[in-house]
Every structure is written in structure tokens, then in C-alpha cells.
Amino acid sequence: MTEDLSPAERYAAARKRAAEQATALASFREMYEFGLDPFQIEACQALEAGKGVLVAAPTGSGKTIVGEFAVHLALQQGKKCFYTTPIKALSNQKYADLVRRYGADKVGLLTGDNSVNSEAPVVVMTTEVLRNMLYAGSQTLLGLGYVVMDEVHYLSDRFRGAVWEEVIIHLQESVTLVSLSATVSNAEEFGDWLDTVRGQTEVIVSEHRPVPLFQHVLAGRRMYDLFEEDSGSAKRAVNPDLERMARMEASRQTFGRDRRRGKNMREADRERERRQRSRIWTPGRPEVIERLDSEGLLPAITFIFSRAGCEAAVQQCLYAGLRLNDEEARHRVREIVEERTASIPHEDLHVLGYYEWLEGLERGIAAHHAGMLPTFKEVVEELFVRGLVKAVFATETLALGINMPARSVVLEKLVKWNGEQHADITPGEYTQLTGRAGRRGIDIEGHAVVLWQRGMNPEALAGLAGTRTYPLRSSFRPSYNMAVNLVHQFGRHRSRELLETSFAQFQADKSVVGISRQVQRNEEGLEGYQASMTCHLGDFEEYARLRRELKDRETELAKAGAVQRRAAAAAALEKLKPGDVIHVPTGKYAGLALVLDPGLPAGRSNGHRGFEHADGPRPMVLTAERQVKRLASMDFPVPVEALERMRIPKSFNPRSPQSRRDLASALRTKAGHIRAEKHKRGRSNAADDRQIARLRAELRAHPCHGCDEREDHARWAERYHRLSRDTKQLERRIEGRTNTIARTFDRIVALLTELDYLRGNEVTEHGRRLARLYGELDLLASECLRDGVWEGLSPSELAACVSALVYEARVSDDALAPKLPAGRAKASLGEMVRIWGRLDALEEEFKINQAEGVGQREPDLGFAWAAYMWASGKGLDEVLREAEMPAGDFVRWCKQVIDVLGQIAAAAPGEGSTVAKNARKAVDALRRGVVAYSSVG
Questions:
Q1: Which of 258, 421, 522, 567 supports an S-S bond with 727, CB 3.0-4.6 Å?
Q2: What's the pTM?
Q3: Are 843 and 798 in contact, with CB atoms under 8 Å apart?
Q4: How many Å apart are CA 616 and CA 599, to the nearest integer?
Q5: What is the pLDDT of residues 238-296, one digit of tens each?
Q6: DSSP 475-524
Q7: What is the DSSP code (8-state) at residue 563?
Q8: Alpha carbon 761 to chain centroid distance?
């Protein structure tokens, strides 16, 4: 080819190659054995050109290569790079990866638990750590050139998402931001916002999966493809076999109903139903794993949306005798497990379920969920990546970034508990979960398998599988800590302006654009309507207003009359007794009837114990046509009274046709000749109403009343009124969405000023203390320090009190009061709840709404006893038994208590206070045994 080029073209090509070889990207590419994908090259080139980047790509596509290139650039340019992740486990994993590539001297780690080489040029950290450094003005920020925000789509997280926006807004302009996200449908919108707050940002979106994903449904003994192999159209068609199965299952249920109704079924139908039942069922967990093994689809992750379900699945596989490892693999597993758990005291192993866990691992089977000890989870992750564990049963938390790719992913159900109710999983959740399938460089293809469930809709499943993206929604809300930190750094006015640049406000303002356009169109329409209703005799707008007032008043009186009539009818029904003969005025059962049961409202017996109704009297009657029915209030639009009395035989059985016939005959004989009096309607309320009389007089006197085109004008006036009302509603919506974040900030600042945390642009001593306290109950913690609630407490008592600031029960249980340590700790916990009550009342006064994610929730005392016992030196067996809590949860809550105790030690007053000293002692008392184990030394 080069022979065909002219000398000038060959020279130009050589210069281009030389220029490419001189780039940082060229030297970076040499560090990898595989070639980079086009989206990775595009992002790296944008970074080298000095631009920020937003990379949105599927799970497992290699987004982190772009983050690693930022690390490479920083080291080459003599700058620092911070690599942030949403969770500690991811930080630990990324730290280990970067140490292997660049060496331990160049890479540091900062999480709530660990601080390793924090002044290194490359530091991996959780996003919260970087946020805290920004507010504290840490010296570590000097020389910072790049920040990588891995899993940036976390800013949608309701509880922690605000941290990502705080970091993005507050980073120095000189810092280049690398944002790595899952595929989101509004990446361009997010990129526009980054462009606004961070400067030039390149948006790179890739929907290409490096390992193709195939979707299946496992029903009975057969695995069906979800989509037809080649449907010949852009939209993939659902496998007709699955649609046929869904129809067959629906018809089987119909056959069952027909049989229950006593209808005859042909023998052929019965045979078809038996064949269907033999083919369609939901296979058991061991059966699924065996099937995947036989098809060569292991290793697999099965997502079960329940911790107990994950543990039960492992036990079921063990009881079924499943063995996925040979003898050599079993020995290797035991070696790794014993090495990684050597530091756990022998007496704790039994409490932690170590031996049952090890048996599963040796067979290649494990669970993975938040209730497990972190060390156990890390061992499972390591063995799975090494191929020594081939079947993992996990909750959805495993989908959140942990690098554990599999050949197959299995979803047992498409419904999960979201904290409030059982809800269908979203397309975004489905994409995140199934994104684990297919290991780059190992598998040619990945497989997502959904188990057939009764009532499954293949079309709905195809919709989940076909929707590859989900929108990124901001969850940003100002907090008390954020407010004092912002005011300290920037003053109130500049802080307000900064908050107006948040993604939350950007999205709110963007949604306002469409509403504003509608308001504009409405206003143009209003001008046209106004012209059409103009009358040459006078002000028709005024005339139309009088007509509306008259109509509204007549409607109001009519409603009041209807309410009075219903009340009178209900009062009459309440006077009825068994044996009263009445005339049902209207409805399907109108005519003569005998009251069997008055059906009075709950709490009103009227001397008779019958069936009570919460929604008014509902008498049960026997009609003259022998029907026994319970009537409703709508059958009695007018009051009814007893025409006659009859004795109801004790032997009367409403279910017996003969019994009904005899009593109905007696009813007709006794009262058949009586004719009910017609109810006379009283005089209308409107007839005597002065306001109506005045409005009618004003209407008749108005000049427009005599206009020949009056009704035509009136129609235009009515349209004008309706459109004007709609426009005002839209304007209220615009008002509600613009400056929402700043208005919330203003309310928070007003409350903090009331409590003397702020004085104008000045942050008081109390405010400076609050600035060091991060967490959901930051203001409560600060008030407790101010009021000396924790003074004089021992370290274990302080740990118990601080636990109430972080702990939240997974399931709220109001029936049982939590066990609390006696003495000073109990009194202090009670005082904390009282302070919270005072703050809650203040928040209500300043219109700070917890439902909007702002404000202080009630402290939860459910972990106080466990924290107290552990800090007092009690054994793990005793603490877990008393706490009735899995080891993983216990360790996680202890670490969060340690984190807040560290903040309190830094924020507590110095002289004359015991809190800071005892907080540090409490940290040491809690950080022992299982709580002290960590994946990084």
C-alpha cells in the first residue's frame, strides 16, 4: 500500500505515526495485552486534550480503562489523581489493582476504615472522604490534577447521591473530572450539566457489550430463548413458544375454574392439561445449577432478593449432594480460606457459621449478601474470580460495582421488596443485574436466565430485557452540615448561587421549559378568547363573573341539600328494627320488604346485636319476591319508615328457599294492601337564598344581559375562564420548581440562625462544630455536644448513645421496645430523643420536610445494647445472640459507629470535657475481633 503513496503522502503518514507514538495514550496502550475499544480510545484522547469526560457504557465493557488512563496522565504530568468509588469494597478492590500496576509507593487508600499512604500521587477513596476533604480544605488537595468518579450514576441514590454533586460542584476548576457511569438514557443531559459546572466535557456513550448477552427462560426441563433468533425486523420478536406457554397456562386455570363450576370437560381437554402440567414448572435451585452445569453455563450468579433465601439456596444444594469442585479444587479452596481467616479467633468460628460456609465453598457453592462477615464476602469474591466457586446465590447488592463477572446470571423472580412493598424490578435494575453475565477475555457470550413463574408475561420480560437504559435523576438536597460548610467558605449569597448550579436544579429548570412553553401558548389562546367574548354593550368579563358566581352558589346549595337528604335517610334507617315492614323507594329491589337485620354503623346497637358496618346502615331485608338482600344507602335516597310490624319466626333460615317462601307469603298477606306515601320534596334552599336573589338582580340589570349574542359570548367567556384557571395552575408548578434548592437552603439557614449556628455570613463556634459532623443526624449530634448530654459517660455508654445516630432497623418494629443499658446511658438516650423532638418541632415550624429528604429522622435505639456489650468486652457469641443480628450487619453498624465517634472526638469541646477522650477510647473498644478484620492491612 505504501508503494502507491506519493513521497509527500508517505512523509505525512510517517509524521502522523510519530505524533501518535509521542502521545501518553501510546505508552498507556503498551501496558495492556489487549487492544482498546473505540469508545475507550475516544475518551482517552479527549482526556489527553485537556477535556473532562463522561463515559456511559454497559457493565463489564471496560469503562475503568479510562479512569486508569487518568491515573497514567497524572503520574506522567507530576500531578495527583484521586480515584473515588461509592463503596469501601470497591475502593479496596481498585487499590489492589492499582498497586499491582504502579507499586505500593505510588498508590494510597482512604476509606472510613483505612488510611494507607494518603499523600501518595494516586489515592483511592470513597466519595464521602473526598467531600469531607473539600469542606475541610485539606492540604492533600494540593497538586490535584484528576478526579475519577467511578459509578457516578450513584448520584441517583436517595440516601447518598448528594455527595457526588457536592464533589462535582466544589472541585477546583483546574481539576479534570472523569465520570464513569452505567448506560443512562439522559447521558447528554448530564453531560450538558457537567459542561455548565466543570467546563468542556466530552460525552462518550457506548451501548456495545464486548461479550454479547443472550436471554433465556428456564421452564421445567427446557431452556427457551426469550427472543426469536432472526425475526427479520428491528424490534426483536418474543419466542412464540413462550407466548404459547403463557396462553396454555392461562387456559389451564380456566379449565380448572370450569371444573369447579361443575362444567363437563372432554377427555381430550383433560389429557392436554396433564401434558401442559408435566411440561411447565419452576425448577428448584439445585436443579437449576445442575442444568447450567450440564449446559456449560457455570460459573453463575443467582440473584435472590432475600438474605434468608440466599442461605437457604446453599443449604438446598448441599442437601441435594451437589459437588461442583474436584478433589484438587477442594484442597485449594481450603488452603485459601484457612489463610484468609487465620486471624479470626477459633472460638468465634462456630458463631460465624464458619464450618457450614466452608463446606459449601469446598463444593463450589456460596452465598453473598450484606449480612455476611466482610471477610467471608471477600473470600467468596476471590474464589469466584479464581473459578473455585462456581455457583453464588446473591442479593442485588452484588450488582453494585463489585468486579465479579460470571458466564451466566439467573433471576429467580422479577419482583423484589423495595423497603415499602413488593414491586416489579425496573429495566435499569434488570440491566444492572444481567450485566454481570459474560466475562471479557474468557467467555464468547454471556447468558441471562429467568426462571418461569406462574403468571409470567413473556412480552413484559422482553420489555425489561429490551430497555437497556434508565434515566439519571438527581437526589441532591441541602443538609445542615452542608449549609454551615458552604456559608463558612463562600458566604450565604455565593452559597445560594452554588446550589443553584446543582444537577437537581438543572433538571428542575429544564422541566420548567416545557411548562413555560405551554403557558405561552395558553396566553396566546386567552387573547383570542377575550377578543371573541367582547360585547359592544358592556364589560362581558364582569357579566361572565356574575354568571359563574351564581352557578357556584346554586351548586353549593344543591350539594348541601343532597347532604341533608342523605343524613335524613340515614337517620331514618338507624331507627329500623328487625320485623319492621318498609317500602324500599328505589333500586333493583324497590317495593315491599321485611327488615331482618338493620345493619347499623359500628358502635350503634339500637338494642339489636346485628352485623355492623363502618359506612352507614345497610339493612338486610326479605323482599316480597322471596329474595334476601343487604341493601345500601343508595337504595334509600329519601327517608323511610316502618309501615307495619311482623314477627320473624325463630326457625327462619334465610338460606332455605322454603323458609323464605313462607315468610314472604306472610309479608304479602300482612302488608300487601298498604301503599307507601310518596315523599314530598321540601322547598329548595336556593328559593330563599339572599345571595342568589342579589346575583340574579345584578345579572338582569347588567347592560350585556340584553345582548342578542349573549349566549355566544358566554361560551367564549367559559372557555376563557377554564384556560385561565389551567394557566394559573401551570404558573404555580413553575414557581414550585424554580429555585427549589435555594429555597430549601434558605429555610435551613433560617433554622440554623435561630439555633445560633449562623449569624449572617458568620459561622459561630457551634456552627464550626456542626461543620465537622457528617451524617443523617448531624444537627442532633451537634445539639447533644452543645447540651453536654454525653458528658461523664463511659466509653461503652458513649458507644451505645452514638449508635442511635447511625442505626436504622431493616424492618420497623414498634411492638417491642429495644433493650437498653441501664443508668447514665439510658438517661442520655432518653435526652437524645427529647432533643430530637424539639428539633422536629422546629423543622415543622421552618417547613423543613423529611419526606423531601431534608431534616432529622428519629434516632433508632435498636443497636444501643449490642454496641454497649461489644464495647464492654463481651464475646461475639453472646453479643450476636442478644442482638439477634447477622455478623455482617453487626460489623457494618459497628464500623459506622466508629466513624461517627471519630467525628465526635474531633468536634467535641476540648477543655473540661470528657467526650473527646472517651470517644477515642470507645473507638478502640469497638475496633476488636471481627470488627477489626479488614481486607487491606
A1: 522
A2: 0.70
A3: no
A4: 8
A5: 778 777 777 776 665 544 444 444 444 555 555 555 555 556 777 888 889 988 888 88
A6: -----HHHHHHHHHHHHHHHHHHHHTTSHHHHHHHHHHHHHHHHHHHHHH
A7: H
A8: 36
